[in-house]
C-alpha cells in the first residue's frame, strides 16, 4: 500500500472545491458520469482500431445508491486505470500558477471544474471520502484501490475489482444527504444525462399491479443514447421531430416548424431548433434551448452562445467545440462560439426565407406567431435584419400581407406627402379606432394593423432605416393632416373667436391626468363635429416608456396630452357658436373692450421713452389687470361650456369614440342621451 500527497501547488484546492463550488454542487454527478462515458468511448475506439482485442460486452454505466452505507457509486466498464495512471491522472492535478488560479477563479465555479481537469474532484463537493476501485483493460493489469478523505493525503493499494472498468464510490457527507434520495438522483440524471451516448442504468423499472406501483426485475435505462438530433435528416420524418420536441417539452404546444443543424466544418455543430408559438410574454419563452457537448448537457441559458433573439427558440444544439465549463467572458471571446452563433443566425434566416419563397401561403398563416420573433431579431441583430428584410410582412386591416417593398409600391402614389415622404398609416386596435380607419379609407388610404408587442419599437427602427418613410397612427390627427398635401382648408373663425370658443369646449374635459388642447378645423359638414387625437410622437414615446424603452422614463411620467378638434363646418358646432353669441355677447363685449384697451396701453408703454425701471413698474401693474380680466372672461366662457348640454354631449361623443368615456361619466352620457331623444 502506498501513501502520498496529491500533487498540487496549493493546499487550498479542497476548500475551494468545497466552498466556492457549493452553489452549483449538483454538477458533480454530470462530471463523474461524463468521465465514465469518456472511459467507455475510449475503449470502443481502441477496439475499433485493433488495440483492444478482448470482448467489449455490455458497457452500461451503473448508478447505485446505498442509503445504509451512505454511498453513491458510479460504475463503468471502460478502459479502467492502472496504479501508474492513477498517480498520473488523479494524484497530479496539472495546472500552473496555483495562486494566480485561486485568485482569478475562486468566485467562478463553472470555470474551475472541467476546464482545469478537475471534473473528478467535483465529487468532493458532496463527499466526506471518495474511493476508486479500478481495473485496466491492459492485459495482466492489477486492480487498484485509491482512497482520499478530502485532504491532499491519499492511499493507493491493490484493489479488489475483478472486471474491467472503474467504480467511483462517494461517501456522501451529512449535509449533502439529499444525494442519497432516489428522486433527487433521478432528477439530476434526467437533467444532465438524458441523452448521453452510453446506456446509464439506475434502479429497476416500475409497473402498476393491483393498484400499486411495484418494482420489476428489468434494469431501468434512464437515457436515450441515440437522440433525434444525432440522426441524419434524410432518416427522419415530421412525426420524429414532433416526438422529440415533446420529449424535450412534455407539456408544450406543437411547434410551427423546425431547423435541423448539421455542420462539421469549420466547426462541429448538430442540433434541432424549433419555432414555438410565441405568446405575449417573451421572457417566459427564453432559455429553452438546451446546450450539449458530445451529448453531455451543459446549460439551458445560452444567451452567451447564440444571439439574444434566438433564445426565443426551443430545441437542442450540440457542439464539442464549446467546453463543458467556461466563464461568460470565455464564451464571449471564443472564435468558435462566434462562428457557431453567426452560422445559427444565417441558418435561421435562410430557412425562413426558403419557407417564404417556396410556400408563401403557409408562411403567411404562421406569420402572426413568427412576427415577434423576426421583429426581435431585426431589432437586436443587424445581420439578421438585412437577411430578414425580404420576408418581413406587414398586414393591413383587411388581413392582406405585403413585404416592405410590396407595401411601399402599393401606397406610394396616394400616400406621399408634400415633402415627398411616404406615409404608412396604421391602427393598433381596429375596433377602437374604427371611425378613424373609415375616414382614412374614404380618402382612399390603406391602413396597416400594428398591434404587436414590439410594433412601436419596430416602427422607430424602420423609420431610422429610411428617413423618407413615416408611420402615423390613424387617429393622430384629422385625415387631411395625416398626409399633408398642398391643399389645406382653413377655418373661417377669427383668432378672437377661436380664443373665446376654446374654454367652452375644454371646460367639460378638465382632468388632472390629461391635458387637452383645442384646435378648430374646417373639416366639412359631413365630418364628425368633434374629434380627439393624440400626436404621434408623444403617444409613441409614452408607449415605449410603458414597455420599458431605454431613456423613455421622462415621457412616461408626463400626463397624457390630446387635441380636441372642433369642426367649424358642422351644423351642431355652428349652433353652439350662435348660442354663445346670443347668450354671452352682452357680457363678453365689455371684457373684450377692457382687454383691448389694456393691450393698447401695454404697447404704448413699450414704445414710450420712459426709463426701463419705469416701464417695468407700469408693465407689471398692467399685466396684473390684464390677467384678471382674461381670467374672469375665461371663467364666464368655461361656465357656459359646462352648463351647455350640447357641448357636453359632443365632447362625450368624441371621448366615447376613443374608448375614453367610462364609469360615472359614461352613465351620465347615457342618461343625457335618453333625455335628449325624448
UniProtKB/TrEMBL annotation:
Disordered: annotated span: 606-634
SMART domains: HATPase_c
Residues of the Histidine kinase/HSP90-like ATPase domain: 24-176
Classification via InterPro entries: HATPase_C_sf, HATPase_dom, Heat_shock_protein_90_CS, HSP90_C, Hsp90_fam, Hsp90_N, Ribosomal_Su5_D2-typ_SF
Record: residues binding ATP: 31, 35, 76, 81, 96-97, 166, 328
Gene Ontology MF: a single term: ATP-dependent protein folding chaperone
Pfam entry (one): HSP90
Keywords, alphabetical: ATP-binding, Chaperone, Cytoplasm, Nucleotide-binding, Stress response
Entry similarity comment: Belongs to the heat shock protein 90 family.
Protein's recorded name: Chaperone protein HtpG
Species annotation: Balneicella halophila
Classification of source organism: Bacteria, Pseudomonadati, Bacteroidota, Bacteroidia, Bacteroidales
Amino acid at each position: 500500500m502506498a501513501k502520498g500527497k496529491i500533487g498540487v501547488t496549493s493546499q487550498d484546492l479542497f476548500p475551494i472545491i468545497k466552498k466556492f463550488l457549493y452553489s452549483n454542487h449538483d454538477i458533480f454527478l454530470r462530471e463523474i458520469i461524463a468521465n465514465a462515458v469518456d472511459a467507455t468511448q475510449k475503449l470502443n475506439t481502441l477496439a475499433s482500431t485493433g488495440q483492444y482485442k478482448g470482448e467489449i460486452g455490455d458497457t452500461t454505466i451503473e448508478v447505485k445508491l446505498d442509503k445504509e452505507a451512505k454511498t453513491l457509486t458510479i460504475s463503468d466498464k471502460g478502459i479502467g486505470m492502472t496504479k501508474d495512471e492513477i498517480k498520473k491522472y488523479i494524484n497530479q492535478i496539472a495546472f500552473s500558477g496555483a495562486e494566480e488560479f485561486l485568485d482569478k477563479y475562486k468566485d467562478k465555479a463553472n470555470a474551475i471544474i472541467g476546464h482545469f481537469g478537475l471534473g473528478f474532484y467535483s465529487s468532493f463537493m458532496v463527499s466526506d471520502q471518495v474511493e476508486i476501485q479500478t481495473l485496466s483493460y491492459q492485459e495482466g493489469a492489477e486492480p487498484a484501490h485509491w482512497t482520499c478523505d478530502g485532504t491532499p493525503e491519499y492511499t493507493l493499494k491493490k484493489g479488489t475489482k475483478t472486471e474491467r472498468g472503474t467504480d467511483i464510490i462517494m461517501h456522501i457527507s451529512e449535509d449533502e444527504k439529499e444525494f442519497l434520495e432516489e428522486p433527487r438522483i433521478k432528477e439530476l440524471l434526467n437533467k444532465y444525462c438524458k441523452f448521453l451516448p452510453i446506456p446509464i442504468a439506475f434502479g429497476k423499472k416500475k409497473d402498476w399491479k393491483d393498484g400499486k406501483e411495484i418494482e420489476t426485475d428489468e434494469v431501468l435505462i434512464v437515457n436515450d443514447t441515440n437522440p433525434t438530433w444525432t440522426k441524419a435528416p434524410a432518416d427522419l420524418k415530421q412525426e420524429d421531430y414532433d416526438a422529440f420536441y415533446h420529449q424535450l417539452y412534455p407539456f408544450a404546444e406543437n411547434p410551427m416548424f423546425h431547423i435541423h443543424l448539421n455542420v462539421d466544418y469549420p466547426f462541429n455543430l448538430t442540433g434541432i431548433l424549433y419555432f414555438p408559438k410565441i405568446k405575449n410574454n417573451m421572457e417566459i419563452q427564453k432559455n429553452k434551448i438546451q446546450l450539449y457537448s458530445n451529448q453531455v448537457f451543459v446549460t439551458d441559458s445560452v444567451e452567451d452562445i447564440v444571439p439574444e433573439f434566438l433564445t426565443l427558440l426551443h430545441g437542442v444544439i450540440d457542439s464539442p467545440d464549446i467546453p463543458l465549463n467556461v466563464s461568460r467572458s470565455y464564451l464571449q471571446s471564443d472564435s468558435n462560439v462566434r462562428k457557431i452563433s453567426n452560422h445559427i443566425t444565417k441558418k435561421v434566416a435562410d430557412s425562413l426565407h426558403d419557407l417564404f419563397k417556396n410556400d408563401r401561403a403557409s408562411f403567411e398563416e404562421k406569420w402572426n406567431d413568427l412576427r415577434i420573433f423576426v421583429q426581435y431579431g431585426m431589432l437586436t441583430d443587424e445581420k439578421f435584419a438585412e437577411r430578414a428584410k425580404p420576408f418581413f410582412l406587414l398586414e393591413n386591416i383587411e388581413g392582406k400581407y405585403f413585404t416592405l417593398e410590396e407595401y411601399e409600391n402599393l401606397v406610394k402614389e396616394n400616400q406621399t406627402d408634400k415633402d415627398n415622404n411616404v406615409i404608412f398609416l396604421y391602427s393598433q386596435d381596429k375596433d377602437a379606432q374604427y371611425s378613424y380607419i373609415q375616414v382614412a379609407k374614404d380618402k382612399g388610404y390603406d391602413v396597416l394593423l400594428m398591434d404587436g408587442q414590439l410594433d412601436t419599437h419596430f416602427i422607430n427602427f424602420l423609420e431610422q432605416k429610411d428617413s423618407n418613410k413615416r408611420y402615423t397612427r390613424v387617429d393622430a390627427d384629422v385625415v387631411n393632416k395625416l398626409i399633408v398635401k398642398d391643399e389645406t382648408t382653413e377655418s373661417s373663425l377669427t383668432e378672437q373667436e377661436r380664443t373665446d370658443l376654446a374654454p367652452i369646449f375644454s371646460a367639460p374635459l378638465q382632468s388632472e391626468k390629461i391635458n387637452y388642447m383645442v384646435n378648430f378645423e374646417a373639416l366639412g359638414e359631413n365630418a364628425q363635429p368633434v374629434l380627439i387625437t393624440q400626436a404621434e410622437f408623444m403617444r409613441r414615446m409614452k408607449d415605449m416608456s410603458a414597455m420599458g424603452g431605454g431613456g423613455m422614463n421622462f415621457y412616461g411620467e408626463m400626463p397624457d396630452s390630446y387635441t380636441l378638434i372642433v369642426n367649424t363646418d358642422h351644423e351642431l358646432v355652428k349652433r353652439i357658436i350662435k348660442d354663445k353669441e346670443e347668450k354671452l355677447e352682452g357680457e363678453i363685449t365689455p371684457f373684450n373692450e377692457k382687454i383691448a384697451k389694456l393691450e393698447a396701453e401695454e404697447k404704448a408703454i413699450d414704445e414710450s421713452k420712459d426709463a426701463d425701471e419705469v416701464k417695468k413698474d407700469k408693465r407689471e401693474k398692467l399685466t396684473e389687470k390684464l390677467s384678471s380680466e382674461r381670467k374672469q372672461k375665461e371663467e364666464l366662457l368655461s361656465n357656459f361650456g359646462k352648463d351647455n348640454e350640447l357641448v357636453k354631449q359632443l365632447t362625450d361623443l368624441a371621448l366615447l369614440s376613443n374608448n375614453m368615456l367610462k364609469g360615472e361619466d359614461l352613465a351620465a352620457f347615457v342618461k343625457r342621451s335618453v333625455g335628449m331623444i325624448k
